[in-house]
Design brief:
The complex is a heterodimer of chains A (158) and B (341).
Chain A (H helix, E strand, L loop, with lengths): L1 E8 L2 E8 L4 H9 L17 E4 L2 E4 L12 E3 L12 H8 L9 H14 L5 H8 L10 H13 L5
Parallel strand pairs in A: 1-5
Antiparallel strand pairs in A: 1-2, 3-4, 3-5
Chain B lengths: L2 E13 L9 E7 L5 E4 L9 H13 L6 E4 L17 H28 L6 E3 L4 E4 L2 E7 H12 L4 E6 L19 E13 L5 E11 L6 H20 L31 E6 L21 H13 L10 H11 L10
Parallel strand pairs in B: 3-4, 10-11
Antiparallel strand pairs in B: 1-9, 2-3, 2-8, 5-6, 6-7, 9-10
Helix pairs in contact in B: 1-2, 2-3, 4-5
Classes of the chains: A alpha+beta (158), B alpha+beta (341).
């Protein structure tokens, strides 16, 4: 049976119908058409499907879509403002923090959740924030360096 | 009960590519009527930068801007043949094939330009910015775009080239069996500092210090990225990855990211890297390959460092805490406090 689901996606109201019990990943990709969210393991272990639900990082492949009714969801498609890249995206480029790029959407969202919460993170904070996200190319060091760079580059809020 | 520090060193001598059947790769290069060039390959870019590197090699050989080259790796059914992306062979094998194809295409391009300018092709040179002119007379010039249009619509020429790289067959000495199956070797040396906990068997890598000799680095940032990621994978082979417990029977083996472990962001260590560039005589612009070879020295260096730390020689990978503890049980715990270095 189809259920109607409505939530905010990257600051826009969206609504769709989905099978009851669908996961958020399928609803975002197939229902809404936001292909910036990637599916990796479909069991909540790789982290590439990470999105923010009310500011908190969530594994969309193991999140019930219906539980997101009325909530605010952020995906990597909403990171840049027009032509202006988010500081995390710029830092990932400059640090060569991706090879195949499959983990990058999840890495960016996990890092954004951290920087939104903690604008001046330590290296340990960054490691904690991305330790649920698997990368098989970079050895993580360029990613950690990029997140720390982005924190330094972001305009300070008091 | 103590944590013991150890240091291990390893050096490697890594043949680029395979030795079997000449290990060939092919490339085709052709111009479009807009003066842009396409490189057709079946060689796959896994993210390691094959497209970037072959694009640079093609542009440099043709003498045109890198922006004017597009690399198409779309389909191994219809593209020119390639053995594959492995064994550190991409830059060397495919790069050489692209270079040969681009040379042939360049010769046609220069002939077409010479016909338009009514000069001898040998008197022409490219400026690397999309123009071809008479040597010493930059005003006698024609754009690559106009050459492509003329070749296509007036002269009836295809500005194109074919390239293949095949390792020459090595003769076998019937007396000794000696032969030289590889033509190109990369080298690396790595020092690993680590700590072994004699109570838990846990190994913590503290620092890596490495030098890599890999011919000319065609794209230094991509090379550095490969070296950082590759040494992480070497650490993973040495300490984490295993099809245990009943390999080769895989029924009880790891099946997913939960069970097949590799180092996470909390397991990595600082890594000082030096790149030495000694151009390879048979490499494209002197390049060898940093790909797979950079993971290799970490395995013996880590095993050696563990021996240095606690005196046990573990010769089966990965070196799990269980294997360290079993070996320590046989040998006995080293004296505490750990040796003063």
């Amino acid at each position: 049976m189809k259920t109607s689901i409505q939530f905010r996606l990257n600051d826009e109201e969206v609504a769709t119908f989905a099978d009851s019990g669908s996961n958020l990943l399928d609803v975002l990709r197939e229902g809404i058409g936001d292909l910036s969210v990637k599916g990796g393991c479909w069991q909540g272990t790789c982290g590439t499907c990470t999105v923010l639900v009310d500011g908190m990082p969530r594994l969309s492949c193991v999140t019930l879509a219906e539980s997101c009714e009325g909530k605010s969801i952020e995906t990597v498609a909403g990171l840049r403002q027009g032509a202006k890249l988010h500081p995390l995206q710029t830092a990932f480029m400059e640090r060569f923090a991706a090879q195949c790029g499959y983990c990058t959407p999840g890495m960016l969202m996990a890092a954004k959740a951290l920087l939104d919460r903690e604008p001046n993170p330590t290296r340990e904070n960054v490691v904690d924030a991305i330790c649920g996200n698997i990368c098989r190319c970079t050895g993580y060091e360029p990613i950690i360096a990029a997140v720390l760079d982005a924190a330094r580059a972001a305009p300070r809020r008091s | 009960m103590a944590r013991h520090r150890g240091r291990g060193v390893a050096t490697i001598n890594y043949p680029i590519g395979m030795n079997l059947g000449g290990d060939p790769s092919q490339a085709l290069v052709h111009s479009n009527p807009t003066g842009k060039f396409t490189v057709a390959l079946s060689s796959i870019d896994l993210g390691q930068g094959m497209k970037s590197v072959t694009r640079q090699i093609c542009a440099e050989t043709l003498g045109i801007p890198v922006e004017d080259v597009y690399v198409d790796t779309a389909d191994s059914d219809t593209g020119p043949h390639c053995m594959g992306s492995f064994a550190s062979r991409g830059t060397h094998r495919v790069g050489n094939a692209v270079m040969a194809a681009a040379r042939e295409a360049r010769a046609v391009m220069m002939e077409a330009a010479a016909e338009e300018l009514e000069v001898d092709p040998g008197d022409l040179e490219t400026d690397g910015r999309g123009s071809i002119h008479v040597k010493g007379a930059p005003h006698r010039a024609i754009s690559v775009r106009d050459v492509a249009i003329a070749a296509q619509f007036r002269q009836g020429k295809t500005i194109s080239g074919r390239g293949i790289f095949l390792v020459p067959l090595s003769d076998v000495n019937p007396e000794t069996g000696e032969m030289s199956p590889a033509t190109c070797y990369a080298h690396a040396c790595q020092i690993v500092d680590l700590e072994v906990d004699d109570e838990t068997g846990e190994v913590t890598v503290l620092k890596m210090t490495s030098a890599y000799e890999l011919g000319r680095a065609i794209n230094p940032k991509l090379v550095e990225q490969q070296l950082v990621g590759g040494s992480w994978m070497g650490m993973s082979h040495a300490l984490f990855e295993t099809p245990e417990p009943y390999y080769p029977d895989t029924r009880e083996g790891p099946r997913d990211f939960n069970e097949y472990l590799m180092p996470g962001p909390g397991d990595i260590c600082p890594h000082d890297i030096v790149v030495l560039e000694r151009p390879a005589p048979d490499g494209p612009f002197g390049a060898k390959g940093p790909g797979e070879m950079c993971a290799n020295p970490s395995l013996p260096a880590i095993a050696n460092a563990i021996y240095d730390a606690v005196g046990v020689r573990i010769d089966e990978l990965p070196i799990t805490p269980e294997k360290v503890l079993r070996a320590l049980k046989v040998r006995g715990r080293p004296e505490a406090p750990p040796r003063v270095r």
